[in-house]
Design a protein that fits this description.
Length: 348
Amino acid sequence: MEAPQGEKTLPIVEVRFKNSRKEFFRYPNSMKPHSGQVVITETSHGYDVGTVTLAGSLVGVQMKRKKVAEESEAVGHILRLANTEDIALWQQLREKEAEVQKRARELAIALQLEMKISDVEFQGDGKKATFYYTAADRVDFRQLIIDLAQAFSIRIEMKQIGLRQEASRLGGIGTCGRELCCSTWLTDFRSVSSGAARYQQLSLNPQKLSGQCGRLKCCLNYELDAYRKAIKAFPRPDVKLHTEKGIAVFQKMDIFKQLLWYSYKDDWITWHKIPLEAVLTIIKKNKEKLPVASLEEYIEEHPQTDTKLFESAVGQESLNRFDTPKKKHFKRGKNRNNRKKRYEKPSN
């Protein structure tokens, strides 16, 4: 994306490393990297290999969003573009990570450490490896670092991550049938409360509301603002409707269809479906102390019409038209008697 007229493009790009780890890097004037290129980035001990994911004016917007200043020390430097040898070494190290992770777990179990090594990330030059782990309590892994350094002869760095970060690094398929948002495009993890499920009239079932990380799903926040805006037109659930027949209590609502369900205190089983406008009218009459006979006067009953969801040119086909017909099983005794009667000769 080109910068508007009169504005200069920041000489900074966003580089993505393994899984969801992203950082900002400044590139020299002689090079103009674009999205998708593999670059060599400078580190404190050697270099690393990553892929450019964002370039141009959008980098400044992303830096403001993540509160990273242009002159911050968190912004690194790009040395050059990666060549075929760098990419080949990078792929070899990626293939080696699964074996190293398995060996690291065996060493952690031997030391009886209450931790789970969820992922291993090699640096682009192969001189350093970062071990990501999750643990409920603080873990003393000093002996583990010594054993790992002796086993692999590289620099070791241990980094503790949360359950959401672990799910973003491992990836997977969610209940919606698509890849996890945290492992594809979601970069920041906002807190999700159970109030988001209440606003959307969802069942407070932990098994349905929890993601693969064991926490509440991040997608509960996606439509929360729309629900909060729409629910302002509805009365509060604790508001009761006073009628001559009795006091009605709120049961549930449908925000999109603008319907509410109420039931009398004496009859909790029977729910009455009332439109939003009618409920507001009853509440207004209650405030003005005007008589309201009953809820049944405001119920709108619409006759249900059968709508055809599918109609083919040759008529509706049966779903079991390709199934093999089942054979009929007759009782053996009756068949034998019928056969005897067929072949018996008539007596003279």
